[in-house]
Amino acid sequence: MEEKYVVPQGAKIGHVHLKVADLKRSLEFYQGLLGFEITMEYGDQAVFVSAGGYHHHIGLNTWMSKGLPKTDPHSVGLFHTAIVYPSRKDLAFILKRLVEANYPLTGASDHGVSEALYLDDPDGNGVELYWDRPKAQWPLKADGSLDMFTRQLDFHSLLSELEK
């Protein structure tokens, strides 16, 4: 019998490439609101954006989607793109930006291992913005396995990080 293959421990998800209807509108969200930087443009059809100088974390293109309506949330496809922030304070800062911009959230949760904000980009693609708690703080069951949960996020506590 062939040995089961397991993805190497150091493997990472490198980037996500999204089909969008309007490149300018998508850039207003990913660059203008979320703060990603443009690393490369392909005319008026595609743009790559990044955090921290990486070649790209998110690709946006209109190659097959220019002018099309938002995605149907009840169809197959991407559920959400998850963007991990380095600290709780960084997550608090982006929450403050979203509130100030009056940008609607679709959810906000404390998962024990992380705290997360959920929203949709202008094309209806789900976006999760989150930070991971230190692994030593992750909740565990009696048998030592992970005990993730979904509880209401404490916005007041999160935003208090900005006062520290």
Q: Can you put this structure into words, describing what you see?
A:
By secondary structure, the protein is of the alpha+beta class. The chain has 2 domains: 14-66, Roll (2,3-Dihydroxybiphenyl 1,2-Dioxygenase, domain 1); 79-164, 2,3-Dihydroxybiphenyl 1,2-Dioxygenase, domain 1, CATH 3.10.180. The chain is 18% helix and 27% strand. The chain is built from 3 helices and 9 strands. It has helices spanning 23-33, 88-100, 155-159; strands at 16-19, 37-42, 46-50, 58-61, 80-85, 107-110, 114-120, 126-132, 151-152. The strands form 2 sheets. The protein has a 5-stranded mixed β-sheet with strand order 5-8-7-6-9. A 4-stranded mixed β-sheet has the order 1-4-3-2, with helices on one face. A hairpin with a 3-residue loop joins strand 6 (107-110) and strand 7 (114-120). The protein is globular and about 55 Å long. The model has no long low-confidence stretch (mean pLDDT 95).
